[in-house]
Amino acid sequence: MKFLLTRMNAMAKLTVILMLLLIAPGQLMAQCNTIPDLDLPFSGNANDNSANNNNGIVIGASLVQDRFGNPNSAYYFDGGDLIDVPEDVSVQPNFPLSLSMWIWVDSTAGAQLPFFSNEDNPNRFCGIWMDVVNDKITFSYGNGQAGFSTSNIKTYTGNTTVTREEWHHVCVVAHSPTDVDMYLDMVLQNTTIYGNASTLAYVSAVWDVSVGSERGQYFKGAIDDVKLYADSLCASERSALYTPGTDNNPFCDPTTATDVQTACYSFQWIDGNTYTSNNNTATFMLTTAQGGCDSLVTLNLTINTVDVSTTQAGATITAVAAGATYRWLDCDNGYSVISGEVSQNFIAQSNGNYAVEVTQNGCVDTSSCVSVTGVGIDAYGNGRQVSIYPNPVKDQLTIDWADFNISGQASWYDLTGGLVKSSQIRQAHTIISTSDLANGVYFIEIKDVNNAIITKQKVVVGH
After folding, report:
1. Which of 109, 220, 393, 442 could pair with 79 as two cysteines, CB 3.0-4.6 Å apart?
2. In terms of pTM, does the model score above 0.70?
3. Helix ranges restricted to H, 1-100
4. Is 41 helix (H, G, I), strand (E, B) or coil?
5. Is the separation of the CB atoms in 444 and 411 below 8 Å?
6. How many structural domains are present in the chain?
7. Tens digit of each residue's pLDDT (9 = 90 or more) over 256-289
8. Residue 246 located in a structural domain
């Protein structure tokens, strides 16, 4: 008898298993293959990707980038915008139902921000709606009655703070009026409940679905990937909907830029560092005021310098920098500019200290002072002395040649080295007319009868 009962129990279990195999697979498959009745991916528009084709009408909202950085893939609501979806029975599910979307709350938004309502009726508490209230997610439904009363609504409020200016995934699975699971970024919320409505009702086909507003209040922030289901989502489906991106700012259009700079000797950049040589590797992250959008800037810096070195041969000082602009200065007279001295070479007319101001590659710098002595006395190391005066000269130049012998010659050159005139010297005290010379700077070169250079000096002519 015991054996018979045992066998009968085994047969009963087998029958149950066979029934489950016949019935359960379809049910289980349906539970984990839930199809949305409203699917708004916001990929460049507010069209419904579900089979119901309940396309939204954009009222003021603007396309921005989504959490992945894809442009025109989410909508921003500025506190007075909405997307209106015409009312249809397909978007009026009763329990069980599920709702999933991504939201980004603006830091300047207020304390109460409705972001979804599937019957935006200002006269009745009906349908379902969701808000961010004091930075907590709420899910509510109404029984269709007029007037605010605890008996007409039920609200579930989450316990996790919604961080502003970051993308968050919101998912509600309402199995029944009293069995509601609410998730924020896949974390099940410990909810508090307000009201005791026990039924969900829709009272009119006039009031549409509203994304971004509810009963005259508006959302401020971004919304993406809105999905409404007439069934309960299972765990694997919820997990599949949670795909965080890498960008937290819908306004950000991440860019890279190069800051091209040229400076003399040193340059202080936006990173606070001072650079004294060429640099094309330094980078800095620029952050916008709204949302903290970062853009990478690379420095391309050219540091220019001026060669202010000089060489000296007797009374002649030469600036080493070629192809530059020059101004010669009298160090003993407060670095005053010496009139007409703008050549690479400078011949001192008197003993003293001289410097050159060089302009090169857009930069200006001054050399060290160079001392000149022995002007007019044995300038060429040949033991012979010649004095030339006055300088500057107006009409007549005097040449005193202390050891004059037979004859000599005075040759005049302009600043380009071109010969302007020649004068014979026939006595130790010679006066040469300069009235035939234009105003300007010249070099006068004195040679003796053997064509040896006795001296070469710069003379300024000014009538």
Report:
1. 220
2. no
3. 2-31
4. coil
5. yes
6. 4
7. 889 999 999 999 999 999 999 999 999 987 765 4
8. no
